[in-house]
Amino acid sequence: MDFDKLDGLVPAVVQDDESGEVLMVGFMNRDALRQTIASGYATFFSRSRGRLWMKGESSGNRLAVRRLLVDCDEDTLLVKAVREGAGNVCHTGERSCFFRELVGAPVRLAAAGGRRKADGG
Amino acid sequence: MDFDKLDGLVPAVVQDDESGEVLMVGFMNRDALRQTIASGYATFFSRSRGRLWMKGESSGNRLAVRRLLVDCDEDTLLVKAVREGAGNVCHTGERSCFFRELVGAPVRLAAAGGRRKADGG
Predict the structure, then answer these.
(1) Ranges assigned E (strand) in chain A
(2) What ipTM does this complex have?
């Protein structure tokens, strides 16, 4: 793994191994990856807290890792996992952190850019 | 969108809107997001080339965006797209950039880690 491109971190995409839903994206450093492998539970490096953080360590909504995939240039991980506990991965209570369409923002961005508006599609 | 956490960039996960397969992860800056919305094709900021890069601009293997989702804290994008051209997204010719299991590495990491030493690296 190449941890040098992003100051010791790589993005780690968590995908539900059963539904295929993309649940969240976190960052791992080398220690977070080690701990993920050793424990079998997705563990990230929290940039805001400056420490390792096992997803669900307080809520119990852990992510049990089934498969770990690496991309072609070895700077990104794909974590195929199953949800434990209540099964909601997002701190808002949603199952996935990606529960909102980028609707308002694109229209504003497109308007500012003077190009055609994004109408979904 | 919060572009401040990562020096003007956000990770953008591309998921095949039909198969659910995670195809690649790139980075977008504000202009790449604008261009993605304006053109309807996934466009990234290439860190190595230091410029915007529409995926498939030379190969024709473009990613037509169907939906754009943003995560809970607005620092990551999920791009639901369909593959155009030959349909192979990875520059290696594979359909997805995530075509390899992290097999050797985890074993080595786990063995080397022993009791999960924190080496700050």
Answers:
(1) 10-16, 22-28, 43-46, 51-54, 63-70, 77-83, 100-101
(2) 0.85
Instruction: Identify the residue among B21, B22, B46, B108 best suited for mutation to test binding to A, counting A beta carbons within 10 A and taking the highest.
Output: B22
**Chain B interface test: which of A4, A16, A44, A76 (most B C-beta within 10 Å):** A76
Cα–Cα dist A70/A112, whole Å: 37
Residue in the block written with tokens 């572009």 = B3
- Chain segment A63-115, per-residue pLDDT in tens: 999 999 999 999 999 999 999 999 899 999 999 999 999 875 554 444 444 33
Residue A66 phi, psi (nearest 5): -100, -40
Residue B85 CA to residue B43 CA, distance in Å, equals 16
Portion 34-63 of B in contact with A at CB < 8 A: 34, 37-38, 40, 47
DSSP per-residue string spanning A40-74: SB-EEEETTTTEEEETTTTTS--EEEEEEEE-TTS
For residue B90, give the nearest of A72, A92, A105 by CB distance. Answer: A72
3-state SS assignment for residue B26: strand
Residues of chain B with pLDDT under 70: 103-121
Distance in Å, alpha carbon of A82 to nearest chain B alpha carbon:
16
